[in-house]
Fold this sequence. Notes:
- The chain is an alpha/beta fold.
- The chain is built from nine helices and seven strands.
- It has helices at 3-14, 19-29, 46-58, 77-80, 98-108, 147-151, 170-186, 196-210, 214-227; strands at residues 36-41, 63-67, 88-92, 112-116, 123-124, 134-138, 155-158.
Amino acid sequence: METKIKKEILTFLSSYLTDNRKQLFDKIIQYRTRYITVVLEDIYQPHNASAVLRSADLTGIQDIHIIENRNRYEVNPEVAMGSSKWLNLVKYNKSKENTLEAYDVLRKQGYRIVATTPHAEDKNLDEISLDGKIALVFGTELKGLSETAIQNADEYLRIPMYGFTESYNISVSAALTLFTLTEKLRKSDISWQLSKDEKLDILLEWTRRSIKRSELIEKEFLQRLKNR
């Protein structure tokens, strides 16, 4: 769809929104980024799955890549607090090796794969370089990442621990990592913001999701454009 048409659709659909909602969209889109993205491999507990989405939304992450090899990803609405409505969820569940497929897609988009797991060559959170787009990969609550996910990653990240417990909960690990790296990113000179076209696409999708029967309303509007 042409950019001009998208802008016309957005302008028309925005008339169904309150001024407060439109102002909120305009404010939040400025903080959204695709410079850092999140990859979740086989996360199966709805509470943790939803908490990660909430943390991603609050730290400005727009895309969540969900790998479903053995477990289906399910969201707990009470925990997610509607955050899934504002994020792009990309699922990988049709291949024999969904993890490798996800990695391939992400690398083609310019990401380097950073697996969050203790490793012989791992780096602490404050040592991770932001010189280039990052895809942060988180694993299951009990077993962590699969061997495939670990062996095919580009880098390895761990969060320092100073207590007796073996590891952080997946949702806590994601929250700590995303907050630390997005804060560091926004204080840097890196161009992490979305492009104009990306902002337009996301604003249009947010608007559609905010309006009941938006698909029908948009279809009627496009028909009127076609006939004018």
